[in-house]
Design goal:
heterodimer, A: alpha+beta, Rossmann fold, OB fold (Dihydrolipoamide Acetyltransferase, E2P), 9 helices, 27% helix, B: 267 residues, ATP hydrolysis activity (chain A), transport (chain A), ATP binding (chain A)
């Protein structure tokens, strides 16, 4: 634990009655001033983590530290964190100004100070002049901003955001992603953002925790997680992937789809069965004779930015290709890719083992 | 064509309203202008503003106010606890159930309980306080009235509390509010509509209670309701009875307007 750590979970389990645990023996650290995202499908436990940090629920087992102090028994109203709720949870009987001022009034601040802070917070979220509006007169995006203003006005050390963008339309959502990220940089406080939208997570975060079934599957920077998914779940959940079975003949040499390829992964047992991930955008279409793989085009969809082409090879593996080039359905094409595009995943490897192996073979390769 | 057929479907409703709402009110108004000998007169209205009737009006409002207040004080916590329980609908049903029993039966049951040799006095005897006069007191009148009106107060408050978005309570907590402040600033203001309709449903009938005043309060409490009953059934002064009824109707309309719903948008 370093001075930068603001929140620490130590083997936290949350279980309701005799149901399977929602959160299973989870440990992690959150550093000050970064943008974190908890990413996972619904029911994976991400919102539970948020509610544990906020103090709405207590862990069944384990310890939660905020600023180095155990907060298991500290009620929500005594914690230095504020939440932006999924449904915004704005008070319908108060106007915009009073919603934002709510926390300050409870702290019994002087009215001119409240006024100054509320106006500043509203300026921060571009809602100047909306003070007197009723909540029901505000649009979804504006309500979102009020909710954010209501959280930041209290100057918390951590802001928790529970899928705050899920109710907005696509364009507004993209806009808010930029704004949230920008806001976090300006304020310099820790954001913990919960989402099931992987694109959102990749675009906004310094650090992503991928959760599944109450466990953290992988944590790391967006590029780490995208380029080096630890297992099938992560590879599948983050972006689109071609996942095919393969055999690691030796370090930096892998066999799949009936051929042997050069790759950049190592640290495996000889002839170990593995899974190969190649991202659809890393595959390039060429003439069949020039391709490293020969595939048959099954179907094609125009996605705007690219064509999504679904192909099959002779072994029956399915290959998804994102290409700006058009293919013709029913024809045979060749696919090429760089050795760097191949990512090899070991079966049942934990994050710790994965990191160790990565370090080991990277050191090895430097020595060469 | 379309509006014609719509009007056609309105007919039964209009007949119903005319026969059972408008006509009776007009009749009451009509009778209020006749004295006991059938002469057209404004004397009834003059008489209403004499101390006897004003005192009765005041006492009606006072008791209705007390009944409403105590009903609210009991009903709100019960409703709140109900929304927190697991089988809330079942428990709610159990609370509503007594309201299906005839009012007269319940009143007689309380005469038995509160009587000199009733269960309440036996209990007081056992714990050493001794027999007290319970029946025919203000206490028993208000107690029984509260008991009878309780379900009507609980229902709207329960519904309002049940509809309250729980994340608003979380949000208030999150922003540093203690449980009490959350109640004061969030829960109560957001359920005020339920409280208002509960108060309406209790206050208006409480204003014109007459059976309980005789059976439980032993005619020590004379309200406008009692007066109307006496005028129509005992003194046969229909004109005066109708005049009091006119004032009661005016009072009810005023209360309805004053406590009328101001609908706030709920997210």
């Amino acid at each position: 634990m370093t001075d930068h750590t603001i929140i620490r979970f130590e083997q936290v389990t949350k279980q309701y009655d005799n149901d399977p645990p929602v959160l299973n023996d989870v440990s992690f650290e959150i550093e000050r001033g970064k943008f974190y995202t908890l990413l996972g499908p619904s029911g994976c436990g991400k919102t539970t983590i948020l509610r544990l940090i906020a103090g709405f629920i207590e862990p069944s087992k384990g310890k939660i530290f905020i600023n180095g102090k155990i907060v298991n028994d500290v009620p929500a109203n005594k914690r230095q964190v504020n939440t932006v709720f999924q449904d915004y949870a704005l008070f319908p009987h108060l106007n915009v100004y009073e919603n934002v001022a709510f926390g300050l009034r409870i702290k019994k601040l002087k009215s001119n100070e409240i006024d100054r802070k509320v106006k500043e917070a509203l300026r921060f979220v571009n809602l100047e002049g909306y003070e007197k509006r009723e909540i029901k007169e505000m649009s979804g995006g504006q309500r979102q901003r009020v909710a954010i203003a209501r959280a930041i006005v209290n100057e918390p050390e951590v802001i928790l955001l529970d899928e705050p963008l899920s109710a907005l339309d696509l364009k507004l959502r993209t806009e808010m992603q930029y704004e949230l990220r920008e806001l976090q940089r300006r304020l310099g406080i820790t954001f913990i953002f919960v989402t099931h939208d992987q694109e959102e997570a990749l675009a906004m975060s310094d650090e992503i925790f991928v959760l599944n079934n109450g466990n953290i599957e992988q944590s790391g920077t967006p590029t780490d997680i995208y380029d080096e998914p630890i297992n099938r779940f992560v590879a599948d959940f983050i972006g689109e992937s071609n996942i095919v079975p393969g055999v690691m003949l030796k370090d930096f040499s892998v066999q799949f789809a009936g051929k042997t390829f050069e790759c950049v992964d190592g640290g495996f047992d000889p002839n170990e069965a593995v899974e190969i991930v190649i991202r659809p955008e890393d595959l390039e279409i060429t003439m069949p004779e020039n391709g490293r793989l020969r595939v048959h085009v099954d179907s094609q969809l125009f996605r705007g930015v690219h064509y999504e082409i679904s192909c099959n090879d002779q072994d029956g593996n399915e290959w998804l290709v994102h290409s700006t080039k058009k293919a013709i359905v029913g024809e045979e094409i060749g696919l090429t890719f760089d050795p760097e595009a191949i990512h090899v995943m070991r079966h049942g490897e934990t994050e710790e083992e994965f990191d160790k192996r990565l370090e080991a073979y990277e050191e090895g390769s430097y020595e060469k | 064509m379309k509006s014609k057929s719509r009007n056609f479907y309105l007919i039964p409703y209009v007949i119903w309203i005319a026969l059972f709402v408008v006509m009776p009110i007009l009749l009451v108004l009509y009778y209020s202008f006749f004295d006991i000998d059938g002469q057209l007169t404004f004397d009834n209205y003059k008489k209403f503003f004499t101390p006897v009737y004003l005192k009765m009006t005041f006492s009606s409002f006072w008791y209705a106010f007390l009944i409403t207040m105590f009903t609210l004080l009991v009903a709100y916590p019960i409703s709140y606890l109900l929304t927190k329980t697991k089988h809330k609908q079942l428990l709610l049903l159990l609370i509503i159930l007594p309201s299906w029993i005839n009012l007269l039966l319940k009143a007689y049951a309380f005469i038995g309980i509160f009587g000199t040799y009733g269960a309440a006095n036996s209990f007081l005897e056992v714990i050493g306080i001794g027999t007290k006069q319970i029946l025919f007191t203000d206490f028993s009148f208000i107690f029984v009235s509260v008991y009878i009106f309780l379900p009507f107060m609980i229902l709207p408050i329960f519904n309002a509390l049940d509809e309250l978005n729980p994340s608003l309570v979380d949000a208030s907590n999150d922003l540093g509010a203690s449980k009490w402040i959350t109640f004061k600033r969030v829960i109560f203001p957001l359920t005020i509509d339920g409280v208002k309709s509960g108060c309406q449903i209790v206050f208006i009938p409480a204003l014109s209670l007459f059976m309980l005043t005789r059976l439980i309060a032993g005619n020590r409490v004379i309200t406008l309701g009692t007066a109307i009953e006496q005028h129509f059934l005992v003194t046969q002064d229909w004109g005066m009875g109708a005049t009091i009824a006119v004032f009661l109707i005016i009072a009810m309309v005023l209360i309805m307007i004053l406590t009328g719903k101001r609908k706030r948008g709920i997210l």
